[in-house]
Amino acid sequence: MTDLPLDDDSQQLLDQARLGNRRAIARLLTHLETGGPQGQALLAALLPQVGQAYVIGFTGPPGAGKSTLIARTARLLRERAAPIAVVAVDPTSPLSGGALLGDRLRMRELVSDSDFFIRSMASRGHPGGIAHATQDVVMALDALGFPLILVETVGAGQAQVDVAQFAHTVVLVEAPGMGDEIQALKAGLTEIADIIVVNKADRPDVKRTVQAIRAALLGTVRAGEGLHHPPADALDIPQAEGGWVVPVLEVSALNGQGLDELISALALHRDYLVTHHRWETHHRRWVRSQIETWLQRRIWALVQTHLDKGALDHAVAAVMAQETDFTTVAQALLEDTLKRLRSSD
Amino acid sequence: MGAYELRAVEEVDSLIERSRPKIRVLIAKPGLDGHDRGAKVVARALRDAGMEVIYTGLRQTPTMIAEAALQEDVDVVGLSILSGAHMALIPRVLRALKERGLEDLPVFVGGIIPPDDAEALKAMGVWEVFGPGTETRAVVQAIQESLQARTAHD
């Protein structure tokens, strides 16, 4: 499978984690986050067991109430699928490289309960909004036997698309008063979300946001799908011609309104994926994106290793001085790297 | 070709590894007092020092704190107490950590702690106690030292 052998410590850690030892699981996740040969060897050892878990991604703008919604959803789903893992991703500060991870704050009802396992992650400089290692961590939790994994990501614009790479179902969480943002998202809305939740439905203005989303959805129907149906129909979703109609749900994570509908919509979407043979497609796409991500990482690291110190800064300066453009510069840097690789042969 | 590939991959591995290690810190407030300003200031200072800070907020029970430390696999635990209940709460947190095999984690305490109590807490295994007016730089430095000491011990 791999040319990276597990050392004794890693093998022991893996054995313990497979037995459900929570401390071993936590430590193993750290190894994956840190990367390096042992992290890669652990991941490779886990790969054959991947593909059993149902992964739900929750994304949306800061302040939409994602953490609270996840906590409530997890509690409602515990009867069907325990233990449940929650992975919460927050941004790394580009200045210090540090991060403030505060999602546990709103998940306190899950904290001291062995049915749940929460892990906070920092995005560590990955521009897509998803921690570089998030996919690895989700994969590992899957392989270690968590049947349900809920992933929270900071969503800002296109970054949300990332989560669709490894979540079976993407729940876009919005809050009242974000109508302008909906307009901006208009084109990409249905590509991002399988279910849209307008949270904080206990607040005024919720109807307007729901209407804005519905208006945005009209005319952006995915191939093979009918027009969008109002949320009253959400639990009786017509699945003509293999299409999935994105339901827009009014939810209040605070007082529980609409949560049952969300649970039902999740179950429906899961069934839809299975009956339409999308589950496997999804898994294949996941594997593919793993390979692509790995290549991107390695190639970038290779370039960094082989460039002269300061070469990138020089390139930036040249573009800033309008001596050249960045495509030309990037091409030159790549060629330079390739040349050095060949001559080091 | 093969030789260069091998070397390149090793270089990349060392590069990736060097770029990654991060200190993870849990900041929690056990007990019932609602004053979380100090905890937030410290949390932000540690983030600005390049650490990943898991902030759990107010009214954490010892079990919640120990579970969070375990699940998040943190390197350090910081507790903030302003209620005066430190002599009751901190031993319980230390016990909850020990029950999970985490007795080696450095534990820091911040808050209004009389000197005698501070000494007693340190005797129980608390790494350091910080009173009001402590510079955040001192906290950052103490955390780094505690981790170096632990690595050296290993």
Compose a concise summary of this entry.
Chain A is built from 13 helices and 8 strands. Chain A has 345 residues and is an alpha/beta fold. In chain A, helix 9 links the parallel strand 7 and strand 8.
Structural classification of chain A: alpha/beta
The first-to-last residue Cα distance of chain A is: 26 Å
| Counted beta strands of chain A | 8
The largest inter-chain interface, given as chain pair and residues per side, is:
A-B, 41 and 43 residues
Give the count of helical stretches of chain A.
13
Mean pLDDT of chain B: 86
**Order of strands in the sheet with the most strands of chain B?**
2-1-3-4-5
Could you list the spans of chain A in which at least 5 consecutive residues all have pLDDT below 50?
221-240
Query: Taking all residues together, what is the mean pLDDT of chain A?
Result: 82
Instruction: Tell me the name of the CATH homologous superfamily of the largest domain in chain A.
Output: P-loop containing nucleotide triphosphate hydrolases
Could you tell me how far the N terminus lies from the C terminus of chain B, measured between alpha carbons in angstroms? 40 Å
Approximate shape of chain A:
globular
Largest sheet of chain A: 7 strands, parallel
Strand content of chain A: 5-15%
The percentage of residues in β strands of chain B lies in: 15-25%
